[in-house]
């Protein structure tokens, strides 16, 4: 009997389809369908994703927020006010930031490397949620290129949300930051196909009809968990 069950399990394992990685267009289409057809609100999705990211990073870290540019969207302003009311510290500038043009010269890079040590000493982890799948990495304007120069030099771990900043959503980065942890939202993107660090997925809420439509082949989430390690 045990041998029969074992053979059945092995056969079932052989038929499992590989996980699907989304293109930029597919990711945008799924988000549109969630809000239009399934009546998810944008704030609701952000809160679901935010909770899953917090669980993936665990409760060991005290956050400090840095906004390169304050958003004019009321939704983002609301979250900023909530963080301020909860006494979560927020930085008005990044002390290690240097301009992209300056970083091309030896002397500013040396200076930046010394300043990067401030981040290494003050924090245990950097959570990279600066850009998303829609970012045009070929046409970034300050302060973002300077921030990416800094993130490439720090020694403490980086945990990136959905798409690591500076990466093209369609393919792995050749010259971007190197996160140790990636938290994919809804479904993993194509740029994560060869990611070798810890990879979490926050997509339990995704309706089955959408999973089937896009052949996502998502894994089964254990218990009541809202995220899973891939």
Note poorly predicted spans: 1-5, 97-106
> Approximately how much beta-strand content do the residues carry?
5-15%
Q: SSE order in H/E notation?
A: HHHEHEHHEHEEEHE
Helix content: 25-40%
The chain-level structural class is alpha/beta
Put simply, the count of helices is: 8
What can be said about the biggest beta sheet? Answer: 5 strands, mixed
Basic shape: globular
Question: How many strands in all?
Answer: 7
Mean pLDDT: 83
Separation, N- and C-terminal Cα atoms: 31 Å
Strand order of the largest sheet: 3-4-5-6-7
**Cα-atom Rg, whole angstroms?**
20 Å
Describe this structure in words.
By secondary structure, the chain is an alpha/beta fold. It is 40% helix and 10% strand. The protein has eight helices and seven strands, in the order H-H-H-E-H-E-H-H-E-H-E-E-E-H-E. The strands form two sheets. Strands 3-4-5-6-7 form a five-stranded mixed beta sheet, covered by helices on one side. The longest helix has 17 residues, at 106-122. The protein is globular, with a radius of gyration of 20 Å.
Quick summary:
By secondary structure, this protein is of the alpha/beta class. It has helices at residues 2-14, 24-36, 42-57, 74-85, 100-103, 106-122, 144-153, 208-213, and strands at 65-66, 90-91, 126-128, 158-161, 181-185, 198-202, 228-229.
Features:
230 residues; alpha/beta; five-stranded mixed β-sheet; two-stranded parallel sheet; 8 helices; 7 strands; 40% helix; disordered N terminus
Give the arrangement of secondary structure elements.
Layout: H1 2-14, H2 24-36, H3 42-57, E1 65-66, H4 74-85, E2 90-91, H5 100-103, H6 106-122, E3 126-128, H7 144-153, E4 158-161, E5 181-185, E6 198-202, H8 208-213, E7 228-229
Parallel strand pairs: 1-2, 3-4, 4-5, 5-6
Antiparallel strand pairs: 6-7
């Amino acid at each position: 009997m045990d041998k029969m069950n074992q053979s059945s399990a092995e056969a079932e394992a052989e038929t499992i389809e590989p996980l699907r990685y989304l293109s930029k267009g597919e990711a945008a289409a799924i988000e549109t369908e969630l809000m239009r057809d399934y009546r998810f609100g944008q704030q609701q999705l952000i809160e679901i994703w935010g909770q899953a990211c917090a669980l993936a990073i665990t409760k060991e870290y005290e956050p400090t927020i840095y906004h390169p540019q304050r958003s004019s969207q009321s939704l983002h302003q609301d979250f900023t006010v909530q963080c301020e009311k909860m006494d979560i510290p927020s930085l008005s500038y990044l002390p290690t930031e240097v301009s992209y043009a300056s970083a091309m010269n030896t002397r500013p890079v040396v200076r930046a490397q010394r300043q990067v040590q401030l981040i290494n000493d003050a924090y245990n982890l950097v959570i990279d949620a600066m850009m998303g799948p829609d970012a045009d990495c070929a046409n970034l304007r300050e302060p973002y290129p300077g921030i990416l120069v800094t993130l490439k030099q720090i020694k403490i771990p980086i945990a990136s949300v959905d798409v690591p900043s500076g990466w093209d959503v369609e393919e792995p980065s050749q010259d971007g930051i190197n996160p140790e942890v990636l938290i994919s939202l809804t479904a993993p993107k194509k740029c994560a196909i060869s990611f070798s660090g810890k990879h979490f997925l926050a997509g339990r809420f995704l309706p089955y009809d959408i999973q089937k439509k896009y052949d996502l082949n998502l894994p089964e989430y254990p218990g009541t968990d809202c995220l899973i390690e891939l």
